[in-house]
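Bit of a strange request maybe. I'm writing a small parser for structure token strings and I need a real example to test against, not something I typed by hand. Could someone generate the tokens for this chain?
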Amino acid sequence: MDIETMIKESKISCENSNNPSVIIIGAGAAGIAAAAKLYENNFKNIKILEAENRIGGRIHTIEFGNQMLELGAHWIVGEHGNIVHELAMEYELFAENSGMTDDLDEKIFDSSGNLVIFNESEYEELSVIYNHEGNFEHYAKNNKTASVGDFYNDKIEKFLKAHPKWKQNKKGITNILDLMMMALYSADSWNDASVISYIDYEKCPGTYIFHWQERGYHSIIDIIMKRYPKPEEELPIINNIILNTKVSLIDYSNEKIIIKTTNNEIFTADHVIVTCSLGVLKNQQQLFKPSLSKLKQKAIDQMGYGSIGKIYLFYNDPWWPLETNVTGFSFLWKDNDLELFDKNDKKNWLLGLVGFYTFTSKPNILSGWVMGKYSRDMEKLTDEEVKNHCWEILQKFLGKTYNVTCPTSIIKSKWYTNENFHGTYSFLKINSDHKIANPAKLAEPVIKDEKPIILFAGEATSTNHSTTVHGAIETGWREAQRIIQHYS
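Reply from user aminoacidic:
Good idea to test on real output. This should exercise your parser:
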């Protein structure tokens, strides 16, 4: 098919220069934010192409066991300067965290089924390690080629020297702290994540963790589109989203940008905002024609993009104490059990399961978090296999203390095996050229005749708030503003 025919059959007309056309790839937080900003500035010729059968991207609120749960983004992280917090705070949609603990105050059991008791000084020192205290920022700024693990492994060595009784469990202690830290970076190990990730990230001051209440994280998408709280003020975004539409080619070699899909549809536009995940960019080498610059490709190749898994277990009759302040159960493997279990190919994903945690507002549900490569192994298993493995490991760690029963039902995330995501969020890798492999380079648009034609948004392009929803929203606004300024 020639270019003229493509343009005739395109779904978006580009003939009116006073109404420039914009195609946004991806209806996640960044894509929705970009569309909203453009509509609010009188850009009308907008389409969003979404590969999934839903909107939200890595925000995925679901109903499970008559409760609203998050398969993707979970908390509002930080208060002041956090656009998610600022947009939603007046509607009382969230509260300070009261479940799914982010600290070492949950019960810890070992793989022999015993409650782990740390004395006061041991507990304080481990809390300091986990809470990014102990001059980590100073260390990072003075050791920019180091990994996150370099700092924490040294801290663990000092802890074991001060408390030698724990030396026989060095691997287990390292494993649990590594897994907890990788909830921040999504890497396979803290030895893979560069300290630059910490230096570049700007933490929003104030209360650190807020959890969504009844409506869930998808509320922020509705707020951005102005569907909530006043539906009569809704922006015309939903009607311009095309679901189940995966882009296979972005051809910017001609005057108009040609976008092809796997459904054999063809679109044209003056501007394309690419908001798909870094994982998709890594796995779509032939997406752009002509190919992206070598520097841009190097940024994509060398930036890290990891995976984290979630498991929700529903019980008709909960077996854990509901009337106490127990926030969950973390798993500390004994070193010999760790080595033996690692040899079980089918079940070794359980070594990446940090533990199971409770919700004060959802008393029938336990939530498990699985990190890194272990989450990818977990995704390959059936729901029934994962459910039975979870029951087995809960019995192993908690069976001496509680009458652990089989879950009634289960749901688990599949971020890595879903080709529309290939994982969860980005990080900066050790041994990468961080002058190139960084969010700022990834965010640089393709310019043609002084016009930004291919633009990039999404959490991986956020220079200060990568990994977060508020970072993704900011980047969507940023790229929309880039287009707006071009026509100002």
